[in-house]
Amino acid sequence: KNIVLVKSGQTSASVSPSGQLDFGSKDTTLSAWIKTKAGGTIISKAATAGIWVRNGKTFFVRGGRLGYDVGWVGQVSGGPRVNDGKWHHVAASRKRSGQVTLYVDGKSVGGGGLASRDDAGHIVRLGYTATDFMPAFNGEMDEVRVFKRVLSAKEIAGLAAGKGPEDSAAHWSFDAVKGTAVTNLKGGGYDGTNRGAKSVTGKTGQALQFNGNAQVMIAGKGKVKVAAPKDPSANEPVVAAAVLGGSGLWDLADGANLRLRIPAANKALKLQVLIWKGKRGEIGEFEKAVAAVKDAGDPPNLLALTTGGPAKWEETVETSIQSGLATGPYATDTFLLPDNNPWKSWMRLGGFDFFKDNKRAAVCTWQGDVWIVSGLSQPKGKLTWRRI
């Protein structure tokens, strides 16, 4: 089935690899203002989730120095240390041939050849690369630009002086961040979704403060939406989903499964996930349902659902305890199982754990039935089994 993500007015849509900025087959220049005492990823283009992979690209600060790495190809780094807690302008130009040149505060500080194509499944992020390579950025970032050409040394010096060219394909100033939306001031797509970065006073206007666990995911170039057919009977079946609240991320990497990835956070997260299946032409009904749930306000109190309700199986079953002989170094008692029970539950036990009172235990069967057995502290007598 096809998958549709319905926007809820909050953070609901994933970032698709389609239409992404090209860091491989075309000339590119990356430009940003950073302030950090640690370092980490400034901007990357890598897999949608998981580990560092071949042909991934990341522009970063490591060991205090600026660098650019291409997965399974190599890396270049150099220049003065920029992890001094002061604002620095950093840039990296890359020719389609792979020649990379690094700049700090308007001056060239090194480079090298890193020839590599782009991977069609990769996406652009600010502040994050992968789970196992190049830490997430820890510091402040402002005025990030991506140019679809190699800027001259004079033009990059102009950017470092607060001037410079205005023909970037993407420009994220962070001055008007609303909720999770990070707008590309140049329009035409490449908008960002903020996952945990905080708005603070920047080099000019506002900046984003990254805590080593945040990122901004950059969407691809905008596409013209095609209206669904009016005849519902002609529509293909779809599964639709929306998330309300929190900062969940839809992952459609394999094109067949819908996964909600929730980034780690220091605070508790409360969200609602709505899932619907039907015909594409009827998707409007689900959108109305999403809007209704959103307008209803706060989600239900889930704590009320943790106290339990009326027993589903009120009847109990009794079995006996067969005490073993205590003439040796240890004795073995046998607790008879309720094989003859009203539900014909097959008593093949797989899990057994005592409660704190040591008089009761929770017992699970291979089929998934759960029982509470009481009377375990008695040397002899009867056990009471209640299916829950």
Automatic annotation (TrEMBL):
<dbReference type="InterPro" id="IPR006558">
    <property type="entry name" value="LamG-like"/>
</dbReference>
<keyword id="KW-1015">Disulfide bond</keyword>
<keyword id="KW-0479">Metal-binding</keyword>
<keyword id="KW-0106">Calcium</keyword>
<dbReference type="Pfam" id="PF13385">
    <property type="entry name" value="Laminin_G_3"/>
</dbReference>
<protein>
    <recommendedName>
        <fullName>LamG-like jellyroll fold domain-containing protein</fullName>
    </recommendedName>
</protein>
<dbReference type="InterPro" id="IPR013320">
    <property type="entry name" value="ConA-like_dom_sf"/>
</dbReference>
<dbReference type="GO" id="GO:0046872">
    <property type="term" value="F:metal ion binding"/>
</dbReference>
<dbReference type="InterPro" id="IPR051360">
    <property type="entry name" value="Neuronal_Pentraxin_Related"/>
</dbReference>
<keyword id="KW-0732">Signal</keyword>
<feature type="domain" description="LamG-like jellyroll fold">
    <location>
        <begin position="26"/>
        <end position="154"/>
    </location>
</feature>
<dbReference type="InterPro" id="IPR001791">
    <property type="entry name" value="Laminin_G"/>
</dbReference>
